[in-house]
């Protein structure tokens, strides 16, 4: 299933140290032009979605809404996550390809 491949990539990306999670870290990543992809869970607040959608659109960073805060956090071995930034171009391109197949 596509979800499993995506979550597998997220885990690899985290182990490689190329993933930032949590609002402050993701915002810093996007504004610092290190982010190649941002994922916000579907159950995040409208305010959070709007904030990151605007921020990524302005900076031409791909933005996707996927999964739940709980599942994203669990996949990363953390508590609930309301946003994730991928800072590696290769991982970001692979994830974007998977995500566009789903959407």
Short overview:
The protein has 103 residues and is an alpha+beta fold.
Description:
- By secondary structure, the protein is of the alpha+beta class.
- The protein has one domain (2-102): 60s Ribosomal Protein L30, Chain: A, CATH 3.30.1330.30.
- Helix content is 55%, strand content 13%.
- It has five helices and four strands.
- It has a four-stranded mixed β-sheet, sandwiched between helices.
- Helix 1 packs antiparallel against helix 5 and helix 2 (23-31) packs parallel to helix 3.
- The two termini are 14 Å apart.
- 30% of the residues are buried.
- The model has no long low-confidence stretch (mean pLDDT 93).
| Count of strand segments | 4
* Distance N to C terminus: 14 Å
Q: From the alpha carbons, calculate the radius of gyration and give it in angstroms.
A: 12 Å
Tell me the fraction of residues in β-strands, as a range. 5-15%
Main sheet specs: 4 strands, mixed
What features would you highlight for this structure?
4-stranded mixed beta sheet; 5 helices; alpha+beta; 103 residues; 4 strands; 60s Ribosomal Protein L30, Chain: A
Topology:
Layout: H1 2-15, E1 19-21, H2 23-31, E2 37-40, H3 46-58, E3 63-65, H4 69-75, E4 84-86, H5 89-102
Parallel strand pairs: 2-3
Antiparallel strand pairs: 1-4, 2-4
Helix pairs in contact: 1-5, 2-3
């Amino acid at each position: 299933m596509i979800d499993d491949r995506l979550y597998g990539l997220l885990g690899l990306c985290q182990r490689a140290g190329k993933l930032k999670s949590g609002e402050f870290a993701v915002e810093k990543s996007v504004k610092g032009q290190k982010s190649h992809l941002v994922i916000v869970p579907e159950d995040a607040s409208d305010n959070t979605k709007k904030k990151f959608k605007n921020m990524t659109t302005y900076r031409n960073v791909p933005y996707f809404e996927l999964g739940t805060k709980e599942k994203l956090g669990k996949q990363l071995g953390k508590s609930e996550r309301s946003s994730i930034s991928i800072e590696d171009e290769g991982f970001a391109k692979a994830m974007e390809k998977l995500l566009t197949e789903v959407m």
